[in-house]
């Protein structure tokens, strides 16, 4: 028994009316209500709820920024448009947050999205054991660095097989051994294991360069030694280009055609005055004008098609401009004669 009860120190409480009223006033006081609210909230996770609310807001803002960056990549727009689109959406009432608004952030966002999409595609190909074809081509950057473009052809989610860009790999050297090593490292990094490739890699396609298809130590030869079931193929587009190039060299009339288109290209690409007069001639005849490019030797088929299509579409405007320029007395006799010759050839 406690000491207070043993020594009779316990006394009854004051039961006077003043004391009872004091207790009642305390119960209804503002301080008591505040203390009661704090006691009730003490059992709740206020900090956790606050963090979750803030996180949801930040995630919503980040989603909006990510969608904006994805739009730029999807529509082939420059990353410099990123901050302008953010500002536009904010003026329209959207909450875009305060971070990830620069073009550098947009670049990193698109890289992140591309990597995640690539992971999903590769995972689908691997899990479904879809047969894989690999097409590579060499390229040179503006800074004169050698690179290898790696494309795949495979079925994704059971759909019809289609070509997919995988990676642009910088090459340390252009030897067959180094190209093979760079390609295998690229496939491994993407998620294609050696065991999976042995079972499902069925074809390798490249151009006809000796470093690629050389019989003794080309990339294709080295790969078939490692993957015996691999089928190698000289890219049909490259073969077609080579065939057309040989035919162009044999047919002299094609050279005259190329010279004619080259003259038209130089006429308007090197003179703003001629370009303006061509547009005025197009307005006179109600014709459309397409930009006339050069006929390239390395991609003759595609470049010549674009040039011929541009000349055909702009035929009426070109003919009218040639006739107007041939009779323009402000031009020299040499220029007028040049335009007369072009008009006759048209």
Detailed description of the structure:
- The protein is an alpha/beta fold.
- The protein has 16 helices and 5 strands.
- A 5-stranded mixed β-sheet has the order 3-2-1-4-5.
- It is flat, with a radius of gyration of 38 Å.
- It comes from Eleginops maclovinus.
- This is DUF4371 domain-containing protein.
Low-confidence stretches: none
Oligomer designation: single chain
* Shape designation: flat
Beta-strand segment tally: 5
CATH architecture of the largest domain: 2-Layer Sandwich
Largest sheet: spatial strand order: 3-2-1-4-5
Q: Give the C-alpha Rg.
A: 38 Å
**Total number of domains:** 3
Order of helices and strands: HHHHHHEEEHHEHHEHHHHHH
Summing up helix and strand content along with how strands pair, one would put the structural category as alpha/beta
Compute the separation of the termini in Å: 124 Å
Q: So what's the CATH class of the largest domain?
A: Alpha Beta
Topology-level CATH name of the largest domain: Nucleotidyltransferase, domain 5
Q: What proportion strand?
A: 5-15%
Mean pLDDT reading? 83
């Amino acid at each position: 028994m406690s000491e207070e009860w043993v020594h009779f120190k316990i006394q009854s409480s004051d039961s006077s009316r003043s004391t009872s009223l004091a207790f009642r006033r305390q119960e209804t006081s503002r301080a008591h209500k505040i203390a009661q609210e704090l006691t009730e909230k003490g059992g709740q996770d206020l900090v956790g709820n606050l963090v979750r609310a803030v996180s949801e807001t930040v995630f919503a803002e980040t989603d909006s920024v990510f969608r904006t960056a994805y739009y730029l990549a999807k529509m082939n727009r420059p990353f410099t448009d990123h901050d302008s689109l953010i500002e536009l959406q904010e003026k329209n009432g959207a909450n875009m947050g305060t971070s990830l608004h620069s073009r550098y952030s947009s670049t990193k966002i698109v890289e992140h999205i591309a990597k995640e999409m690539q992971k999903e595609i590769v995972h689908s190909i691997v899990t479904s054991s879809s047969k894989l074809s690999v097409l590579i081509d060499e390229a040179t950057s503006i800074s004169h660095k050698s690179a290898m473009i790696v494309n795949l052809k495979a079925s994704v989610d059971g759909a019809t097989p289609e070509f997919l860009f995988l990676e642009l790999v910088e090459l340390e050297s252009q030897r067959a051994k180094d190209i093979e090593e760079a390609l295998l490292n690229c496939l491994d990094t993407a998620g294609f294991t050696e065991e999976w490739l042995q079972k499902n890699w069925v074809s390798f396609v490249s151009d006809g360069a000796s470093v690629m298809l050389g019989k003794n130590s080309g990339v294709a030869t080295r790969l078939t030694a490692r993957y015996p079931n691999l089928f190698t193929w000289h890219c049909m587009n490259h073969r077609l280009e080579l065939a057309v190039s040989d035919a162009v060299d044999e047919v002299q009339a094609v050279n005259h055609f190329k010279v004619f288109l080259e003259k038209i290209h130089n006429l308007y690409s090197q003179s703003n005055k001629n370009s303006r007069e061509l547009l005025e001639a197009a307005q006179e005849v109600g014709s459309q004008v397409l930009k006339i490019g050069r006929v390239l030797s390395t991609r003759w088929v595609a470049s010549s098609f674009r040039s011929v299509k541009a000349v055909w579409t702009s035929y009426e405007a070109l003919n009218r401009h040639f006739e107007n320029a041939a009779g323009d007395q402000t031009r020299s006799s040499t220029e007028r004669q040049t335009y007369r010759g072009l008009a006759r050839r048209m």
